[in-house]
Amino acid sequence: MSTPSLPPSLPAVIGSLPPTEVRKHLTAELLAGRAYPPAEAVDKSTTWLGDHDRRRTDEVRDLVEEAMDRYADNRTASDAWLAPRLHATLRLTRREAADAGIWAFLALRLAPDYVLWRFPPKRPKSSTEQSSEQVNAARFDGEYHTQAFARLWWTAELFRDGPDYRPVEVCCANQDMLGTTLRLDIARHRATARALVELLDRRTVRTGREVNALAKAVNTAGTTLLFEALADAGTTDAGAYRDWVEQVGVQVPRERLPEGPPDGSVPWESVERLLVLFERLFKEAPVRGKEAPEEAED
Amino acid sequence: MNNRLFPYPTLVGRSDLEIHEVRLDGMPLRRALISPGARVIALDRADRPDWEEVEVDLRLHTPTELRAGTWQEIRCYSSLFEGRTNSRSITQLGRASDDVWSGTVRAHHDDHHRRIELDALITATIQDEPGRIIGRATEAWTIDLEARTPARRNTVQTIRADFAAPDRPFLNPYREDPWMIEASGEEPVLYINTGFEGLDRLLRSNDRTTRDMVGAQISSDVWVALFNAAAAAVETDVDDQPIWPGGWRSSVLQRLLPDLFPEHSLDDALIEIHARREQGEGADLQARLLHAAGRQARLPKRLDVHIRNLAKKENS
Amino acid sequence: MSSTEEFGHALESRLHLLGLDRAEFADLVGVTQAAVSSWTGGRVKPRPETMRRIEEVLNRHEENTRDTAPRVDTDRDALTWYHRPAHRDGGRELGNAAAFAFDTDLAVLAREATQNSLDERFDESAPVRIRYTLHEITGTRLQEFLETLRWEEIEPHVESAAAPSNKVGRILQRGLADLRDGGRLLLLRIDDHNASGLTGPDYDDGRFSAVIRRQLDSRKASASAGGSYGLGKAVLWATSRLGLVLVNSELSEPHEGHRHNRMIGRLELPWRRTADGEWAGPAWFGEPDAERGGATRSWWADSDTARRLHLEREEGSPGTSFLIVGAHDPSGEAETLEEMHEALVTALATNFWASMVTETGGVPMLEASVTAVRDGEVLIEDQRVDPELAEPEMTRALRAYLDRRTTEDLTAKHDVAQVKVPLSVPPRKGEAGGSVPVHEAVLLVTPAEDGSAAPNRLVGMRANRMVVVDQKIPEMPLGAPPVQAVLLAGRAAGDPGADAAESFLRAAEPPEHNTWKRTDDLTSTYARGAASRINEFRRAWKEAVHRLIRQPESGEGDVPPALAGLLDLDPPPARRSPGYPHVKHVNGDVREDGSWRIQVDVQLPQRDDPWVVEPILRFATRSGPKPVVAWALEPVTNCDLSARGALIFEKGARRAVFVGTSDPSTHPVTANMAVVEVELRRVSEVAR
Questions:
Q1: What is the pTM of this model?
Q2: How close B240 comes to chain C (CA, Å)?
């Protein structure tokens, strides 16, 4: 299948697409990877974000191209590299990030090739006939945990520990952790997110099955335990975050890990308290995954 | 319906969350923007669109059984939550008197998009395990960043616009249609075409029967469109079970499913429609949908009135 | 007679009594003799500071001459009743016209009496203290009372007037019956302290004669006085089943050189005939006045007589005590002593709470209390009426105003907002153009407490802060936060135009003093258009409240009427009896082995075929899908297990019960760590 060609000129600034437009461009052609949305039509209905200096498209485009280049042989691994750098390049407040139109713009106009590259078309799960292979439309226009770009940005935002993006890398490296926990409410508590990643890092949980079991145990225990009360995540310095967002002209490194917003780290004793608790929940959880628990040790 | 169980005793009585004062960047908000009846705080102030921080002084009134019971180390917290921005934070409340806890919660404009849920939780230590949730505020509050009046805005938004105008290019293709339903975004919108001659006036006219009849027609269309959009958004989880979609889509399904499948519980009805869509059995579903949408729009009643009215006119 | 002339008269007689000539007096006071002449001649009234000096001088002189002019108490035996003879022209009055000018009850009595006391306040730096005492007497006390009162003189009169044919007659009948058959008498005593007392001459103009002699006279000290018709006093007699009221005054200004224990009684009866003749109307109990053909006048009582008549007062505290003999609630509402006590307390609280409120640490205008006694034994303690108990929110608002703690807008929960409400007072009839003062009444608004019984009320008042207007604030928008409002007008609000507004509003009050509207007094005193000024005032205060609670208008997205109510996204209320089997109630525990054991009560809709469901047990989650766990089912009532492990409910049953025990090995987390939920999943009737 030939890859379609991108429109030659990029708009200078990031924009936001209204929902009707988005639906309109989710054609079968696009989802099959045969054609990209027509640039002019998209541009006409885009609302351009102001503040040009920090909304430059070329920086984001460069970043995405480099990700595709570096990880041409291992697309899943690109998540760990791209997530923190996307967050550090496309600096947004959470309020701005809540606008689904920006993510849709990135996916439909700025880098549809990335979406197709990262999530290649395949046969839908529940189809019965010989239906054509398709990219999951949600990768273009889905919720924050599924959309191709939003998922990376939000993983970075929720799993970073203040300016430290290392936990983000760890989280992305395990697709089960990324896929399961990002969409759960428990990930919204910094100390919980940090503790979960730490357990992964320490290899207390390793396999996909174990990660799912841990997530389930913590998720259900969250109905009777107020993690936020047990482990104070510290206050975030909203002013510092704002300052970081408004910085311009900062070079985002490709080799070493960039620095995130210096808005406060999670106190370590909070993470520790949760580590003890989560470990206990995991160890005592009768079900450790889909297979029967009588399975012999790995 | 009471189908949940906690593994330890929880509070039975009411806990009431009371708002004492709200401040935007230190300036107190007028009382008229705080509605204890609707439990809404309306924050949209045209005079201060760039506010940075909102503070809410609140009080939680807990039931007397909290003191009478055997719970240890009782703590009360207020929580702020918005799903769209994945923001959740809690603030511990201090004990102001026997059954009253007070504190101030803060939220930053940067962290919120539109509606923040303000709630309260009560925890205790049970069998040496701290932080067990034993109760929450009986009714949560909503801080609405875009509301100008503190009312619960839970209707489909209606916007009157000229479909041919250049400022809304996405409506242009529909310029010859009387109305259009936008069901793909974060909130559903009904657009009424002011460019369609006479329609706007008709909808406000004094001739109630005709006006209501057209209203029912529009409303029925709206429900059909919204239902189809909502049903299409139903995804399945790892076990192939359909999941309720978020926000307005769930609301639409909850309103219509009881009329679509009167003998099914909501969850069962969701499974049903998902199964039918999967298996391509759409026809029967559409028939049921027209019935359900018509009921929401009060179509049968209004049509009846209209017919009788016509009959009267003819006979007179 | 004008007050200047009256003062002159009083001064003259006092000087005469004390044996002071004008020259001496002028010296003592420090003015010219000519000045004193102008006073006694009734041409000039001295300034307030000079008045004080005069008083000082006279009092000092009085003390000095006390021994030379000893007080002579009237001998009790000299007291008698004088009945006004019937009109020679045969005209008859069947009842006191004034008493029926408005419907009375204990609340009206409390309002009238307290209002009068407030208006008669003597020392502005101290409160008026008013006390209501309900005292039921029997036995020897009663006998003593009746004897001292010379009841035997008036009994035939009361009897004669007690006829069932008219309203007054029936009341008298009842009064007599209570006394004779019941052997008891209820006395309602109303005391005020720090009020002027019934000063002035017995017959000529003065406070005394206005209350005791004149029927429709309103001779009050100043323009802000509450009662402009003088009908108030009639209520006192209407509250007595026997039409009998006794009075004792401690005077603020001496009369005939005395102040203490000036007493008199008045009996209000319609026309009657006794063995001695025909009589028309009132009778007075006191000392016979030779100069007036035996008509009785007030007497100076000794303490013993005052005590026997249950009217003893301490010396030195000016004011009046009224004793209503055979007291009852004219409306018939309150019957027992307790009920009457309650009615009085409520009336005082609802009407005068504002007069009892002061700035923090200040002195109130009014202190009131009610007590009930039976034969000398206290039944209900003398407790002061507390404005905060009666009207907590409004009291808070008024206090904030007096403490100068009000705000311009309502932001916090306990804010009190203060705004101006204009009232333009029209000129009086006959007054030339002149500038019309625009008075600024003060409106206080505060949020009502949640669950407040009667929110959105506005009360309006004048100088003495008695509640005149009490209304629901009209046209309050739906969903607006409830408030309480207090409107202070006239002297209660202060300048500009306080005096003019005070007089104007007083004229706009009907005899009941319960609203401001077009009245005869208003139209006769003020120029044309006066009534419309009142209406403007009402509109202005309504708008002022609305402005304070206004919510911003909604935007462009308003729903056209044709679609109203058709596009609601709120979830519909859950049906109590839905068309499918559902869980009514669950009950259960976590057991030792870590399993849940749960009893489930199921409600079933009516149907011919049996229902078949698969009960599902799930662990709840913070978000996302809820893991299902395995459990073993035991049918208990009206159900059975199918071959495939589903639950079959009995045909036609409405309720069923089963128990489920979970398999801990399928739990995602230990049972004691999470919440569980039970659901009933429909099973397709077709074999899977």
A1: 0.68
A2: 11
